[in-house]
Amino acid sequence: MPNTPVAPTRLARRATDAVNIDPDGPRRRVLVTGLGTFWGGRVAQALEANPAVEIIVGLDTTEPTVELERTEYVRVDANYSILSRIVSATRVDTIIHTFLVMDPTQMSQRSMHEINVIGTMNLFAAASAASSTVRSVIVKSSTVVYGCAPEDPVWFTESTPRSRPAREPIERSLEAVEGYVRDFAEDNPHVNVALLRFSNVIGAELETPLTRLLQLPVVPSIFGFDPRFQFVHEDDVIKSILFAFDNDLPGVFNVAGDGLLPWSEVADLCGKRTVALPPIATGLLTSPLRRLGFLDLPEEYEGLLKFGRGVDNHRLKNFGFLYEHTSTEAVEAFIRAVRLRKVVGENEPSYRYERDVEQFFRHSPAVRKDRRQA
Amino acid sequence: MATEEAESKKVPTRPSRSATPRNKSAAAGAKEPAELLNQDDALEAALERADSGSAHGELVRIPLEGPRNPDALDERRRSDVNEWGRSEHMREIARRIYNPVYKHWFRVEWEGLEKIPEGGALLVANHAGAIPSDAPVIMHGLETELDRAVYGLADNFFRTIPVVGTIWNRLGGLPAHPDNAYRLLREQDQLVLVFPEGTKGPSKTYSERYQLRRFGRGGFVEIAMRAGVPVVPIAVVGAEESMPTMFRVPSIAKALGVPYLPITANMLVAGPLGLVSYFPSKFKLKVLDPVYFDVPADRERYSRSRVMDESEAIRDRIQAALYAMLRERRSVWFG
Question: What's the ipTM?
Answer without folding.
Answer: 0.79
